[in-house]
Design brief:
The chain is mostly helical. It contains 3 helices and no strands. It is elongated, with a radius of gyration of 15 Å. The two termini are about 20 Å apart.
């Protein structure tokens, strides 16, 4: 995968993780039932799977990890 596509994929992964994380937190706060706890746990598992994608990208493009950290330091987010 070329670097430009890798950046797009990493950005998408961070956006998806952020959205899923916010959803999991919201459900955890507003739905104390077993179903709510399950959804919160499943959202955490989904974020873990997305993390596997970013790890693969970083193995192929180690320089992108510093790029992403720099964006987070500067803007508080990647994209």
């Amino acid at each position: 995968m070329d670097r430009e596509l890798a950046i797009l994929v990493v950005n998408a992964c961070y956006r998806a993780s952020r959205e899923i994380g916010e959803m999991g937190t919201m459900v955890g706060q507003l739905e104390p039932s077993e179903e709510g706890r399950q959804i919160k746990m499943q959202s955490g598992a989904a974020i873990g799977e997305i993390g596997k994608i970013t790890e693969a990208i970083y193995r192929s493009h180690p320089d992108l990890e510093a790029y992403v950290e720099g964006r987070i330091d500067k803007f508080g987010r990647v994209s």
